[in-house]
Design a protein that fits this description.
Largest sheet: 6 strands, mixed
Number of helices: 5
Order of helices and strands: EHEHEEHEHEH
Helix content: 25-40%
Distance between the termini: 18 Å
CATH topology: Rossmann fold
Number of strands: 6
Radius of gyration: 15 Å
Structural class: alpha/beta
CATH class: Alpha Beta
CATH architecture: 3-Layer(aba) Sandwich
CATH superfamily: Flavodoxin domain
Strand content: 15-25%
Shape: globular
């Protein structure tokens, strides 16, 4: 997910958690930035949940970089990027890995967002930092096992994160 807080910002997203997706329209407006969703040329199965988790986990564990179906993305107008990913088998998702491998993100302010339904996004963030050696990593925020009961706490955390982006922290 790539966000910007000024007219020259954007956000790239792949499989955002439901509570972030719910907030994306308002966040895009609040941050005055476009959202770019990554699409694969061959999507993972969505009809069989077990197979979907198996193939996405395998893809992440073996550091695969599946082909993206997106048109080339011109990142030059953007000073700030917010990159969001689900955590797949403890790793960055393979579509986001494909994006990071395909584009040189140099000299831009980068904020990282990760969502995991179980463990910790720490390994995912470490991988993303390694894949972004020439960018200015500003902050990362992780969400673990968000439920309806914990939604308000996570929503506040996400809103505070957006305010920090706007402030350039």
């Amino acid at each position: 997910m790539i966000f910007q807080s000024f007219p020259n910002e954007a956000r790239v997203a792949k499989a955002l958690p439901w509570f972030v997706r719910q907030r994306v329209p308002g966040m895009s407006k609040e941050l005055d930035c476009p959202t770019i969703r990554l699409h694969l040329k061959k999507e993972f199965s969505s009809t069989n949940k077990f197979l979907k988790y198996f193939w996405t986990g395998k893809s992440a564990v073996f550091h695969e970089k599946p082909a993206l179906a997106n048109e080339p993305i011109d990142l030059s107008p953007y000073d700030t990027l917010i990159i969001a990913t689900p955590v797949w088998a403890g790793n960055v998702s393979s579509p986001v890995r494909s994006f990071l491998a395909a584009y040189v993100i140099e000299g831009k302010q980068v904020y990282l967002v990760a969502h995991d339904s179980g463990g910790s996004p720490k390994k995912c963030f470490a991988t993303m930092r390694a894949l972004l050696p020439k960018s200015k990593l500003k902050k990362e925020i992780g969400f673990v096992n968000v439920t309806q009961e914990t939604y308000s706490t996570h929503k506040e955390k996400l809103e505070a994160f957006c305010k920090e982006i706007l402030a350039g922290k």
